[in-house]
Amino acid sequence: MKPMTTTKPQSRAITIAILAMGGEGGGVLADWLVDLAEHNGFVAQTTSVPGVAQRTGATVYYLEMFDKASIPEGRQPVFALSPFPGHVDIVLASELMEAGRALQRGLVNPQRTTLITSSHRVYAMTERIAMGDGRMDSDKLLAGAKAAAKQFIAADFSAISENFGSLIGPALYGALAASGQLPFAREQFEETIQRGRIGVASSLQAFAAAYEEAGRQLRTGILAPLPQSEAISQTKLPEVGPRLQDMASRIRNEFRPAAHAKLLAGIARLTDYQSEPYATLYLDRLASLNQMAPANDLGDDIVNESARHLALWMSYEDTVRVADLKIRRSRFERVRLEVKQNEAQQLDINEFLHPRLEEIADTLPTALGRWLLQTTWARQLLGRFTKQGRIVKTTSLRGYLLLYAVASLRSTRPFSLRYSIEQERISAWLSSITGLLKVNEKLALQVIRAQQLVKGYGDTHSRGWRNFQRLMKALPQFQHEPDAANKLQQLQKIALSDDSEQALLTSLKAQGLLQPSRC
Predict the structure, then answer these.
(1) pLDDT tens across 54-98, in order?
(2) Which of 90, 308, 317, 406 stands the most exposed, by the fewest C-beta atoms within 10 Å?
(3) Terminal alpha carbon distance of the chain
(4) Which domains occur in the chain, in start order?
């Protein structure tokens, strides 16, 4: 791969934009490029525009470099402070959505821009909090990026970096060197890393691996495959521990094979969430559906989807579950790996908690919880302590013990107000499915899938439950229509597309299906 030559004086600056999230080495990468330019006959300038927290944006580092040989005597180039749409030569993106943002901002020009991106995903908050599956389609993002750029390189540079204990910056740097879009040789890129004197060995290894992958793509025109999904494979059943072997045997003997993977995952989840008897209740509830569902592909879908959605509903998120997940050793280890903590560093994890009064009542015994919600003076008194959230440092003994005490309430969950409410709702949902299986199996399947509206915690759960109730109240008015299943599916999509609930209300009203509700 030949680097861009400079036999002809450059008439303009080389412009580079780097889009990276915090902790990924974007600033180091920008500094390397400045150092590379200044040590090899160029002048350079870099600026940065910080992003915001919670992954809704990333820092944009912008760099311009100009060949000293092209500067008239007595004059100096004037560098821009930020990228101008359509006038960027090279865009480096640390994650696939950041490449999409570069396209959205107009930074990628099909006649000019080389776009280099990692193909892995770090999901944005807007994707995570969506009522439905809010994830952007990675294949479409890749296709759009490839079509929009003059030269396109994409691979899982995050995985390449992690293989060598490095940040993603050196891998992107290696891919840039292989692209041939800068007038410097590979050795000059590597010398810049060596001058940094920090993490040199791991950075050079990540650089070399990415250089080879980018070179392979440019030679063959074939992109690296997308990172593999972590979804449960239908061909490989999940393993369960010794305590669940009896339930696993029951699944193999009593339930149809198409649902075995979901059922095994379900009993593992519910045992972890509550207890083995609770997981047994899960199988007992599904046994009748398994018997009633027809012996065909539709029947397999009914049992498979029931297994998935019932497991999710029975493991609803409450204050106990949230506390339990936040103090698990696996979570601390995951955070340490994500921030790449070393032995000389101390890690503090601060959790912002803001439980609503309703969520506190839900954790109390049924009678006491109902009394709290119905008693004005008690609500007002407790409201003084809950109207503002609080920060709990789970890496401190005090903070850890506080959440440990809340998590230990798992043994009292079956006696709580929330448990009694959720079990009553689940029973009503299963009864509706059972009744529909006798008259309209396709509609029964859509009622099963409508459960995905009921998820999350706090306000998200409340909105989803209200939408679910509206659909279930409207269902008797059209369930005997020939296209009832399609109609429910479309209403469900409308509910998932709008967090404000107005789209569903408008659609139900237009069709004469809106029922009075006290929810």
Answers:
(1) 444 578 999 999 999 888 888 888 899 999 999 999 999 999 988
(2) 317
(3) 65
(4) 14-220 (3.40.920.10)
